[in-house]
Every structure is written in C-alpha cells, then in structure tokens.
Amino acid sequence: MNRNLSTQSNSIKEVTLFFAITLGLAYFVFWGPLALFQVPTISFVSDIKGPTWAILFYMLNGFVPSIVAIILTRVYEGKTGLKKFMKRVIQFKIGWRWYLAAIAVVILSTLGQLLIIHLLGQTFNYMGFVIQLPSFIPLIIIGPLSEELGWRGYALDRLQTKWNALTSSIILGTLWAFWHLPLFYMVGTSQHELHFSFVGFLVGLVALSILFTWLHNNTQRSIWTAIFFHWLFTYSGQVVGSYVNRSPIYNWLEYLPYILVALIIAWVYGWELKHK
What we know:
single chain; mainly alpha; 12 helices; globular
C-alpha cells in the first residue's frame, strides 16, 4: 500500500512539473509575450505576417509538450524508460476496431458540424475534403506529433494514478485548453482573427480529452492512437473551418457533436472509460 502511495505521489509530482514547464513556457516565453505586446505572427486566414522571430516563437511552442515529455521521461525513467516510451509512439497494433472507432468518431462529429452549418442556413463545399488532401500528411506534425507525446503519452497515465479516467480527462482537457489561451489574444492566429469563443473551445477540448482517454485506455496506452485520432480531427477541422462562414453562434456550437459523442462514451464505458 505504501509503495502504491509513493508511486502515486511521484507520478503527481512528475506530471505537475510537466504542466508547470509546458504552460510556463507558453505564457512567459513564447506565446504570452506575443499576446501581451500584440506582436503579429502569421495568419492562415488573412494576410497578416509578423517578424520572423515572432513566427518562430509561435511555431516552437507548438512542440513544447512533446519535447518536455521526452526530456522528463529521460530524467525520471532513464534510457530504458525513454526507449519504451518512444516504442509507444510506433505502437501501430491497436486492433482494427479501435482504428474504426477513431475514424467513426471523427466522421460522425464532422457530419454533426455540417448539419449545424446547414441549419444555420449556409452551404458547404464538400469537395474541400478532396481539395485539401495534399495537406493531410504534413498535418501529422502540427498537433499530433508536436503535442501528443506530452498530453496523452506523458501526462494522462500519471494523472490516472490518482484520479479515475473521467476526472483525469477533465483535468487534462482543461489544462490543454488553457495552454492554448494566449492564441486567443495573438494577432494573426485563427483563434484571434475569427473570434473563437474560449469557453466553447474549453468545453470542446474537455470532450475531446474524454475521447482521447477512451481510445488510450483501450489500446494498451499506445501513443500512436492519440496521434492518429488527433491527426484525423485536425484534418477534418481544417477543412470544415476553411469553408464555413463563422458566426458567434457557430463558434459556440462547433464542438457540440464531439461533446455529445463524449457524453455517450462516458455513459456507456463508465468512470474508467474502458471496455470491461
């Protein structure tokens, strides 16, 4: 029992340090100063382009979660632990049904977003999913690889040593959202230029975090599962976001389909989000 308490205590200290470093660098080194002093970065939705150093800071912080996870794993678990950690990144054998599950969640949620768009009286260019296919492969770097070694690979299991899967997901999703908060005040980012709702974004990322944990806990803690799922919903979100005429109401409803799916998954699989 004492050993378990000691392991739990160490895990919480390790994950607390991870969050402190990751959010600290975002707020006080990379993104925070850009937001505070309104230094333009680079925009994918307008012609805004700031100085090279600002663009570099903007891009570098996106890789911080995975880089910090790799460094801390090496510090706490040594070379052997880091080797095991990196093997989970290429742990492709997760079972065909879990590949289908990840794909189904994104397809259903995307259809839900398209339904919202039509209910709001807009049309949508479905060929966008074909037109933007050349960007699909590069997208694995921005978000999936740059973040998921940290959020799901490092932080999630450590949180679950103390809290159940659902609670851990809510904690992680909340901190994941607040890591993004400076983007809402940075000139040039989609969050700033398109007037995203941070509250809607926060609730959406908590829902996504629940879905990530469900996939993670049912695929032997494979980091590849998180990368794959992140990859899919990033591409879908990019395409939908490229063709929707954003309005305040859409910005609030954008994540509703993912929220509904997450609620269903939590109801079916219970607190531990795992198949019995």
